Amino acid sequence: MGKNIILVSGYDKFVREQAKKIADEKNILFADVDAILEYNIQDEYEVLNKCGLTYLNKLKDKTMKDIAGYENTFIYFPLNLYINNNNFEIFKDCGKILFVEPNNELLYSLYKNDNSISEDEKKVQLSAYNIRSKLAKLNSNSYLCLDYFESDYIYNQLKRAIDNI
User: Fold this and answer.
1) The domain that contains 144 carries what CATH number?
2) Cα within 13 Å of Cα(108), Cβ side
3) DSSP codes joined into one string, 33-45
4) For residue 56, is it within any domain?
5) Which end of the chain is more exposed for a tag (fewer CB within 10 A), N or C?
6) Residue 149 pLDDT more than 50?
7) Would you give the end-to-end CA distance of the chain in angstroms?
């Protein structure tokens, strides 16, 4: 494989598992950016309260730069982290970036079926998602649109997209 593959997904709970499976099959390191940040910082709120936002952001930036230095790794990035703090700038030269998202019909059905938030919150989240999605598409080498969430389908689509990068 050589360089890294950076997989960016707006719906990581559906994609992460299959991405990990593919990395295992290819016998390469799987790095989950969210999990690494959580491990390195442990309690973000405590760091924020004790050390301040500037220090917290420096910790996050250092972690991102460390991850960008990995080689021959499948790096998994949740969309919100990829877009926040312009992390795409840090990762643009460390590998090929594949952005994965649900098609519009699937995206809206996910929000429609979410009863944990109000209709107004759904509208705000959808708007934020669409803005992040546009930025991710602009800053990715490849794009994959999923028609539905089913393990075998996601696995096959990801595998095909990764093999074509």
Assistant:
1) 3.40.50.300
2) 2
3) HHHHHHHHHS-HH
4) no
5) C
6) yes
7) 10
